[in-house]
Design goal:
about 100 residues, alpha+beta, three-stranded mixed sheet, two-stranded antiparallel sheet, about 40% helix, globular
Length: about 100
Amino acid sequence: MAPWIAWLEKHATEKTAELNAALRDAVATHPPPMTGKRQLRLKYATQTAIRPPTFVIFCNDAKLAHFSYRRFIENKFRDRFGFEGTAIKLEFRSRSD
């Protein structure tokens, strides 16, 4: 990959509507697993920073977001928005935070 492409991806901003569409598609493809009697419910996502691209995903309880499901969401965002070679951060926030 050319260095300038990586630079562009590192400075990319995604619209909230597009992030939410990607999040809905990911959840439809692979719903969050149950943890005991509770299930993670993802509400919406927004981008809060550019360098590195940082996304906040609001949910019912951030403690229910298993690391493997976090990685799955990260990979779906990479596939959809092309953050190849760029570190991205995902932050899950509970409704009460």
